[in-house]
Design brief:
2 domains; Tumour Suppressor Smad4; Rossmann fold; 23% helix; 16 strands
Length: 302
């Protein structure tokens, strides 16, 4: 594996701001202003974040990586990634997981484009800290190997699909949010049929996100290291009777486990609409601790 000091060619993947995306969606500026007015009069907040993010882009482009190559994430499929040693994700956490799916054979680094609006749980750097680290020969940084989840879905017609690797979290649920999710869990010689709002799988990278907002504090501890070689599974929104009856409701997976669908469902990887896979009745999904790792440059000081 390359070290940070081996880095010569850098690709920076920018995220478009909400204002840029909204301007593309609503080509009429007056209509966009009307939408923002309805949305709690949010124009100033959205535009100020847009300005901070575009300023951050220019700082990265001119000060941090003046010899780098710069694209928006829409162009990731059209560029030869083998030309680069490092891929920099410039945006928020969701953008990081999107870029990470293209970065399994590269070093990746997360840089927060607007810390006022993004917590950046997966992002080790602010632009100024990144400049300091690069100027000092990457001193103060380290490479972490983050755990990933591999997913294989076997369909009743015999087709098998390997999904993208899960970086943070995977959701298994009914395609209709108003209907109960029904499925059978196979884990460690135990088989359990469940009804819930769905299953949430999470790595250490995802243990401070969705799971932390719905699990009971301290049972188990709400977060664990991104490098821990396991993931956990959580059954969402169980009724009182089901909480008492079910055994496989919040458990650790160190190797693999299997889910059989009893619903018209879907499997969503890292909450990205591009990575939702059909999970109809009779489909069988196997989730494993991946042999691959995500090699992430992190900041000692964060």
């Amino acid at each position: 594996m390359k070290t940070a000091k081996d880095i010569k060619k850098v690709l920076v993947v920018f995220k478009k701001t909400k204002y840029e995306l909204d301007s593309e969606r609503y080509s009429n500026p007056d209509f966009l202003l009307k939408i923002y007015k309805i949305q709690n009069d949010c124009h100033d907040k959205v535009f100020q974040s847009h300005e901070r993010q575009t300023q951050s882009r220019e700082f990265i482009r001119k000060e941090v990586f003046p010899n780098g190559e710069f694209i928006f994430r829409d162009d990731l499929d059209r560029i030869n990634l083998s030309n680069f040693e490092l891929i920099v994700s410039h945006g928020g956490d969701n953008h990081f997981t999107y870029v990470a799916h293209y970065s399994l054979n590269h070093l990746i680094l997360g840089c927060n484009s607007d810390s006022r609006t993004s917590v950046g749980a997966l992002l080790s750097f602010e632009p100024e800290a990144l400049l300091h680290c690069v100027k000092n020969g990457w001193n103060g940084s380290r490479i972490e190997e983050w755990t990933l989840i591999s997913v294989s879905i076997e369909y009743p017609n015999g087709e098998t699909v390997e999904t993208v690797q899960g970086v943070s979290e995977i959701s298994i649920r009914n395609n209709s949010p108003d209907l109960t999710s029904r499925y059978i869990i196979h884990h460690m010689n135990k088989i359990e049929e469940q009804k819930s709002s769905g299953l949430l799988l999470y790595t250490g990278a995802g243990s401070t996100g969705w799971y932390a907002s719905c699990a009971q504090k301290g049972n188990p501890p709400p977060s664990f290291s991104k490098t821990e070689p396991y993931f956990r599974v959580y059954s969402r929104e169980l009724g009182a009777r089901e909480q008492d009856r079910y055994k496989l409701t919040d458990f650790k997976v160190e190797n693999k486990f299997v889910v059989v669908s009893e619903m018209n469902g879907g499997i969503s990887v890292d909450s990205l609409p591009e990575n939702i896979y059909d999970f109809p009745a009779g489909a069988r999904a196997t989730f494993k601790v991946s042999a691959k790792k995500l090699n992430v440059i992190t900041n000692y000081d964060k």
